[in-house]
Amino acid sequence: MQEGFLREQRVLESDLSSDGSHKNSIDFLIDWFRKRSIFVLSYGTGCGAIEMPPTFTSRYDAERLGIRGAATPRQADVIIVSGYCSYKTLRRIIRTYEQMSNPKYILALGSCTINGGMYWDSYNTIKKLEDYLPVDIYVNGCMPRPESILEGFIALQRDIGNGKASSWQKYQENYEFYRKNQEAVLGEKIAPAYDANWYLYDGGL
Amino acid sequence: MYSEIKNRFATSDVEVKRDDLAKVVVDRHRLFDLISMLGREYGYITLSAITCTDWIEDDHFVLSYMLVREDRKHNMMIQSMIGRDEPHIESLVGSFKQAQIMERDLHEMYGIDFVGNDNLVELSLENWIYTPPLRREFDTLEFVNNHLTFRDGRDDNMDVKKEMKRLRALKKAQKEAAKKAKEESSDVKQ
Prior knowledge:
CATH architecture of chain A: 3-Layer(aba) Sandwich
Helix content of chain A: 40-55%
Largest sheet of chain B: 5 strands, mixed
Number of strands of chain B: 7
Distance between the termini of chain B: 93 Å
Strand content of chain B: 15-25%
CATH topology of chain A: Rossmann fold
Number of helices of chain B: 5
Largest interface: A-B, 27 and 22 residues
CATH architecture of the largest domain in chain B: 2-Layer Sandwich
Number of strands of chain A: 5
Structural class of chain A: mainly alpha
Number of domains of chain B: 2
CATH class of the largest domain in chain B: Alpha Beta
Strand order of the largest sheet of chain A: 3-4-5
Oligomer: heterodimer
């Protein structure tokens, strides 16, 4: 118990205990369950997605902390926006985020989501993710290593456990603000089309 | 081969760049004759790329078609100029299927209309209503400043040049003080 993963896990989880701000034990229990079973959508945008497989597989093994993958947006709690976010990707992220069921959280990885990073003067990449979607935790770095991602998850778990991670409520309450910003860069029609004309034309199907 | 191209296509601009690469500049109306002739008679049967160069000073685009011979040992670059205002040229989709996606890309990035390609929909820029972004009159930084918001810097954000100067002066002063102290101590010993 003194070295290796178990020790690391104890260090990581040492400040995960609740701060006692809950009104009653039901709230406390619900938050405890939520923080201990985080389902992460298997969805990667940009280069940061390459850090997610090691995080979730045997080397860093996020499942020991209760963090594991989910196949569809409707089963997921967390979406990771991993890296730069072009307009085209942002449309898909918005649709995916709106398909997820409450409570839902956003973890943003990398400097690109924070201030544009190396794409600061790109015509096709947004600079501040929090203008378009509510972000719970930013993990900085270019790219953040799996250790940083785990620390970000622990911070998210702490917030969930204390009942403070409420970005999804923020999105509902300030929907006009987010929608206005989204329309400013994406135009009136934000959701991408479901058809596959491009595929038919190129000789597919 | 090169002399035949010169004679048949009335061009003097044939340049052998490397052992495996030659460049031919032809008139845009003879371009597809040349491409089909090269494929039929000399075995240049693969189209590997279509690229575009924006010569804004000379007011034209240069389209480069890269053809590869069937033994994969020789490449032919065929260039043709088109005007920058309402640029258009015949599509190559009929002879090369892979031209489809290359032409879509050029249509999106430069606004070139490929006549005969019926699927010139956007590839990565959806609902793009501004100037095509790779044309040189498109000012990227101005566009970003007009359309996107940046995060303000940190509160303790410092000017790098000034800060380096200050630190260097500080270091120098410390060094001199240490030197002085050393000299004084040696004086006392003597």
